[in-house]
Design goal:
Elements lengths: L4 E6 L1 H18 L5 E7 L3 H9 L6 E9 L10 E5 L9 E9 L3 H11 L5 E9 L12 E5 L5 E2 L15 E4 L7
Parallel strand pairs: 2-3, 2-5, 5-6, 6-7
Antiparallel strand pairs: 1-9, 3-4, 8-9
The structure holds inosinic acid (IMP) and magnesium ion.
């Protein structure tokens, strides 16, 4: 697996430090609130698992899974809900936890769906942000790192469903994309 990588972009230590910082900030901001962390499967699971343990206030978690219509690496913006949240959202302060904000079209769509369910508030926490590729007005309330316009993998993020188990964020060698 490591042989497929061109370079490590964000190493494990730097990642963990940032996740701790985000957890502290979120803990502070959500004091006295009814925090429900919503993880968008599957890319955000590793981040979610670390982030929730860095939060010192009470919180609950839930998961949703969406698939975008369109080819592998690009998003069309139209998403289909494959797995919905388990509960109604009234009374909750939602924090959507994402792996990466790319075009933003997926999150835009998810937010429009969740808003209709009348949560008390909705905020976004993304580990990575690729602002160069944004096609919507979505912006993250919390984010870890800006990344360049390169396809990154690891720490939950995949290429062709692989590399999610890398404990750091890396860039794949270009030849891996070719068939
Ligand atoms: P968006 O709708 O373009 O913002 O798409 C966001 C989703 O595309 C993310 O949740 C990822 O699943 C996927 N994605 C976008 N960029 C990358 C990348 O560099 N590596 C892995 N997955 C990515
Ligand atoms: Mg994702």
């Amino acid at each position: 697996m490591l042989r497929d990588l061109e370079k490590v972009l964000i190493n494990e230590e730097v990642l963990q430090k940032k996740v701790k910082e985000l957890g502290e900030k979120i803990s502070e901001d959500y004091k006295g609130k009814n925090l429900l962390m919503v993880s968008v499967l599957k890319g955000s699971i590793v981040f979610m698992a670390d982030l929730m343990r860095a939060i010192t206030e009470k919180c609950q978690i839930d998961f949703m899974s969406v698939s975008s219509y369109g080819s592998g690496v690009k998003t069309s913006g139209v998403v289909r809900i494959l797995k919905d949240l388990d509960r109604p959202l009234e009374g909750y302060d939602l924090l959507i936890v994402e792996d990466i904000l790319d075009s933003g079209l997926t999150l835009d769509y998810i937010i429009s769906i969740l808003k209709k369910r009348n949560p008390l508030s909705i905020k976004i926490c993304t580990l990575l942000d690729k602002p160069a590729r944004r096609k919507s007005n979505v912006r993250a309330d919390y984010f870890g790192f800006d990344v360049p316009d390169e396809f990154v993998v690891g720490y939950g993020l995949d290429y062709d469903e692989k590399y999610r188990n890398l404990p750091f964020i890396g860039v794949l060698k270009p030849e891996i994309y070719k068939d």
